[in-house]
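Lab manual, section 2.4: Encoding a predicted structure.

Procedure: take the sequence of the chain (258 residues), apply the prediction step described in section 2.3, and record the output as structure tokens. A sample record is shown.
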Amino acid sequence: MTQVWRGDKAIAVTKVQANPCTVTQVKTTDKDGYQAVQLGFGEKKKKNMKKPQAGHLKGLGDIRYMREFRTEEGELKKGDKIDVNTFVAGDIVRVTSTSKGKGFQGVVKRHGFHGQEKTHGNKDQERMPGSAGPTEPARVFRGKKMPGHMGDDRVTVKNLEIAKIDEENNLIYIKGAIPGARSGLIIIQGNGELKVNVVKEKPAEKKEEVKVEEKTEEKVEEKKEDKSEKEEKVEEVKKEEPKAEEKQEVKEESKEDK
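Recorded output:
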């Protein structure tokens, strides 16, 4: 988990890598008996693709995960892509995933039992479940809370809020914790319009480059003009120099006459 700042408040969020999902199959009532959409996510090595999967995903890439969702009649087609643009910050969603497996656990951790007293005749009974069933039927009723395997179950958490969306890196920041371990596959579902094949607008970088080039050309022209002005001044100085020599010659001639 990480945090996102809203003004002076830090909100705990879970960062989810949500790369685009590809529509791999569209099932219809006429052909398959029900309406559904199959989505694909992730990539795997081509050598690990089995021939039936490769034939099913022909032209769509080497997809790693595929999940099916029941839908109503829509305009989705095979090959369409759904990305993070279908969600907006502030949307309320539900997240489904497989919880962390915790192995075989006792009743205190698995079901929250209080446990037995530590004193007054008890010995090694602090975390025991106690009596398991009544005397008359002489059996344990089905569904009794007892020790057993904990975790590794399909869990859905509802009413989670999307705090932030990073479209460039395909990241979704969900407020609070979500079930499952790191690098696990999750399913995010929400209400609203489903956006498909959204084209991202790229910033116009070429225009800025043209402006820079124009400025450099103007500077070069100004420098050339300055050089030409300096050359003209030098020529004027050179033209004035002979006048000073003429004055000296006139003075010398006047001295000789005297």
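Check your result against the sample. The radius of gyration is 40 Å.
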